[in-house]
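Researcher: Here's the sequence for the chain we discussed earlier.
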Amino acid sequence: MTDKLITEGKFTYAEAGEGPAIIVLHGLMGALSNFGSTFEYFSKNGYKVLIPELPLYTLPLIKTNVKNLTSFLEEFMQHKKLENAILLGNSLGGHISLYFTKHFPEKVNALVLTGSSGLYEKAMGDSFPKRGNYEYIEQKAKDVFYDPAVATKELVDDVYSTVNDRIKALKTLSIAKSAIRHNMKNDLIEMQQPTCLIWGKQDNVTPPEVAEDFHKLLPDADLFWLDKCGHAAMMEKPEEFNKTLHDWFISRKI
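Model: Thanks. This is the structure I predict for it:
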């Protein structure tokens, strides 16, 4: 996807397709490429898909938090002249989607959450590898997936580089603490948007009971399980993920 990246001012993003807008939000240790299959599929099936690079490591440390990442999303929508969109988020990206929906409900047509944080406060902190040797980081990365082979050397190298960069490590911790502070449990009942929850049955970062709580607390949510799948369903089971989401869009006329 790097060959599709567009840079305009402070925004760097991928965009393709025509139709209702889907804004995809990656996780803290994630990247735009995590959604490569989703980007290609939906941009060819009647949707405009946009994946912005979140400024996780470019904001000042004091502003590196869920609130300011949400403000960035609002500015991105203004930049792209989007009055509303479907928000699709994994992990931290799901949390930003929820926080954005709380503050700008009129700008959200629907929510798609997969392995989202925002509810289970231990998930965020537990999912971030601490500094350590390469083998330790490699094992922590593999633990995110049901199939450890999904954690390629390139992915592990990226995580290793991030957690051993002092400034990035501090900003990672800042976001993790912010995510714990901004627990969304009491806000979910107010979110009337149709919500699609797609969860790995073997997610050990935001485990199945988290998905069940989201399903119970959100007023208009449907929950779908993907078996033999961990925290990043769109990476580990891309075809199932895309089909499940597309069928849901059709059933909900979104």
